[in-house]
Design a protein that fits this description.
single chain; alpha/beta; FAD/NAD(P)-binding domain; 2 domains; 7-stranded mixed beta sheet; 6-stranded mixed beta sheet; binds flavin-adenine dinucleotide; binds 2-acetamido-2-deoxy-beta-D-glucopyranose; FAD/NAD-bd_sf
Length: 507
């Protein structure tokens, strides 16, 4: 046994070089005879939660030998990002995680990260003139009030969301048993049959009306939740609507230190190489029996190309989003990915709220931490809320409306000075992030494919069913399983029907 620590430097270097060259010889032999041998190189494009979770799951399935390169053109975390105000960081993109988002829970646990303490605060709905719905201190009173106001609608809605959640959670069982799906349609229908597929095609309002939820409840409660979560109206598909409503329940959390820490942690855990570069083209590359993909990339530090056995695209492929990737030399051509992404502008404002605008001339009695809005065309913002920093100390308390605080405003367009001066009495700073946030739903768009080519996969199609951190994580686990089974020709693990029954008899 050689002891690396006591060896002279030069000898150590020679030892490592020999090791490296013998490994690469092995690697070449492997890729020449593909059957039974693991892939030697995998590329992932995008280091958001989707790409980094894919790296982690691919490492779990393919083992320690395979090289995993993750290309990132911007910042690790992607749509999970923070901005700094007064030496404190605040989430500007994806912020809220549901307690039943089991992959996110698992990542945080494995990475030794912590849930951020939640600080109580009340929510209200503003229609442009007055508050039409206010949360009180007392939960039971709220229930009675909603009951009184909207009758049976509230209970019907609750049951509907719970039933969908329960079915959706079957995915964790299927994935734990190693089952994979070759398309988003297969995945959804294995969870909720044709009912789930129909929910990606029908509008939320139509589905809720059919359920017996009142128009008034839809306008005053549902629409404001869709506006704050997806910046869109009640015409969005019922499935993403349900995802969004689940995200409006109790039991929400975020990651202490910022959600993007999960992405950084997963990259490390996966022992993946981060390459700070933009992937510009992907093309098939076949030599004899082996088919690989050539990736061309450009970065400030490096520019070049590399061959990979498996490639996962973990960023939206719509032309308007991110850094465009071109697919060249595919016969037949790869299908174009249609649709567009919805703009949502997040403005983090440090200043004094103009409580008069909300009908409270005395800021000392303004009781709300977040304000949602109805779908009123006169309103120039979707929501405004007092936000907590990503690190919360034990002594932290929310700022009162008469104090200077940090607020997050979501709007469809960038806010001009007159608009800022309407919501805020005065402000010290404004930091704007113009997100290509989530799909612009409801253009009759189908669900994009997961398998683009033999060893080429696309993660972000799942966003057209629903865009959330957990959805990207579910897609990441699915692609890792799918790539693994397809590589090893274990086709019986893909698109199996009647999984509920199969899993029961397997146990
Ligand atoms: C304002 C806002 C609020 C949200 N709120 C929530 C919420 O509360 N809860 C929730 O669960 N979800 C929320 N979401 C949605 C959630 O943030 C996203 O669904 C999720 O972060 C998507 O992750 P991803 O890894 O799939 O994509 P991304 O995070 O977009 O990652 C893709 C990465 O690929 C990189 N890239 C692109 N092209 C290239 C290229 N050619 N070469 C190299 N790299 C490239 C990009 O720079 C980017 O970092 C919100 C989103 C926004 C914008
Ligand atoms: C990604 O790459 C493009 C083209 O090189 C560049 O214009 C853009 O600013 C980059 N995006 C980020 C977030 O760095
Ligand atoms: C979904 O839609 C199809 C076609 O409209 C219909 O036949 C089917 O019954 C629907 N499924 C459910 C569960 O409603
Ligand atoms: C919702 O918004 C879309 C455009 O994004 C619009 O076509 C549609 O009419 C709106 N629906 C309602 C009910 O306001
Ligand atoms: C914030 O929290 C993270 C995660 O717990 C920790 O690593 C970091 O040091 C904290 N930062 C500050 C300024 O307290
Ligand atoms: C605050 O709101 C009031 C009432 O809408 C409005 O008159 C005033 O111009 C707003 N702005 C400031 C800076 O007070």
């Amino acid at each position: 046994m050689v002891n690396f620590f006591t060896m002279p430097r030069s000898l150590l270097l020679r030892c490592i070089l020999t090791l490296v060259s013998s490994l690469s010889v092995l690697g070449d032999a492997d890729s020449a005879q593909r059957d039974g041998a693991p892939p030697s190189k995998i590329a992932i494009i995008g280091a958001g939660i989707g790409g980094t979770a894919t790296a982690h799951f691919l490492r779990q399935h393919f083992g320690p030998e395979v090289r995993i390169d993750v290309f990132e053109n911007g910042t690790v975390g992607g749509r999970l990002a923070t901005v700094t105000v007064n030496h404190q960081e605040y989430e500007t993109g994806g912020s809220i995680i549901h307690s039943l988002n089991l992959h996110m829970q698992d990542f945080v646990k494995q990475l030794g990260l912590k849930h951020r303490r939640s600080v109580a605060g009340k929510t209200a709905v503003f229609n442009g003139e007055e508050f039409i719905l206010e949360e009180t201190d007392w939960y039971l009173l709220d229930l009675f009030r909603l009951w009184w106001h909207y009758g049976i609608s509230f209970i019907r809605l609750q049951m509907w969301v719970e039933e969908i959640m329960e079915k959706f959670m079957r995915i964790y069982k299927y994935q734990a048993h190693g089952y994979a799906f070759s398309s988003v349609e297969e995945l959804l229908s294995s969870l909720g049959g044709s009912g789930f597929l129909n929910m990606t095609r029908r509008s939320l309002s139509e589905s809720l009306l059919e359920l017996g939820v009142s128009q008034r409840f839809i306008d005053e409660v549902i629409a404001p939740i869709m506006r704050v979560n997806y910046g869109q109206n009640i015409s969005i598909p019922a499935f993403v609507g349900a995802v969004s409503l689940a995200g409006a329940q109790a039991n929400l959390w975020s990651v202490e230190g910022g959600n993007k820490l999960v992405c950084l942690g997963l990259l490390k855990l996966a022992k993946a190489n981060l390459i700070q570069a933009q992937v510009t083209t992907i093309s098939p590359h076949t030599t004899g029996e082996t088919s690989q993909y050539q990736l061309n990339y450009e970065g400030p530090m490096e520019k070049g190309w590399e061959l990979y056995d498996i490639v996962v695209v973990a960023t939206p492929l719509q032309d308007s989003v991110g850094a465009t990737i071109s697919f060249q030399g595919f016969e037949p051509e790869l299908p174009a990915v249609g649709g567009s992404y919805h703009h949502t502008v997040a403005s983090i404002v440090h200043g004094y709220l103009n409580c008069s605008y909300f009908g409270f001339p005395d800021p000392k009695v303004f009781p709300f931490a977040s304000v949602l809005t109805t779908d009123n065309p006169e309103l120039f913002f979707n929501s405004v809320g007092c936000v907590c920093p990503v690190n919360i100390s034990a002594s932290f308390r929310r700022k009162q409306a008469q104090e200077a605080g940090v607020y997050k405003v979501f709007s469809q367009q960038r806010l001009g000075k007159p608009e800022l001066k309407t919501i805020f009495k005065s402000y010290y700073s404004v930091q704007v992030t113009d997100w290509q946030a989530y799909p612009h739903y409801g253009s009759g768009q189908g669900l994009p494919p997961v398998v683009l080519h033999d060893g080429l996969y696309y993660l972000n199609g799942i966003e057209w069913a629903g865009s959330a951190m957990e959805m990207s994580s579910v897609a990441a686990k699915n692609i890792a399983l799918l790539a693994y089974h397809r590589w090893n020709r274990q086709l019986e693990m893909i698109d199996q029907k009647d999984l509920m029954h199969k899993i029961k008899t397997e146990l």
